[in-house]
Amino acid sequence: MEEVILELIKRKCIPILLYGLEACHLIKAQLRSLDIFVNRLFMKLFRTNNIEIVKCCQYYLDFNLPSEMLAKRTDKFEETFKNNCTFGKFLI
To answer: What is the rounded CA–CA span in Å between residue 67 and residue 74?
Structure first.
């Protein structure tokens, strides 16, 4: 049951949460607030307040934090932007 809930969160909720953020510069506090969402979700789902247990569950279930996902998406966005930009103008 937990795997199904986490898969739905990973495939549906996280992309909505991160939509468009790769084009924005977020400070560390803002990134942490995104991660708190996932950490609290794991705490409620597995009925624990121990962050070490939460981190182990995230590791073994291969569930990345939003800040990690956003870093990958930002790198991809910047690479695509650089490849599609010539002399400051977009190629159409």
So the answer is: 10
Closest of 19, 22, 15, 17 to residue 36, by C-alpha: 17
User: Is 19 in contact with 77 (CB distance < 8 Å)?
Assistant: no
How many structural domains is the chain composed of? 1
pLDDT digits (tens, 9 = 90+) for 11-35: 999 989 888 888 888 899 999 999 9
The answer to whether residue 92 scores a pLDDT higher than 80 is no
| Domain, as residue range, for 49 | 2-90
Q: How far apart are CA 34 and CA 27, in angstroms?
A: 11
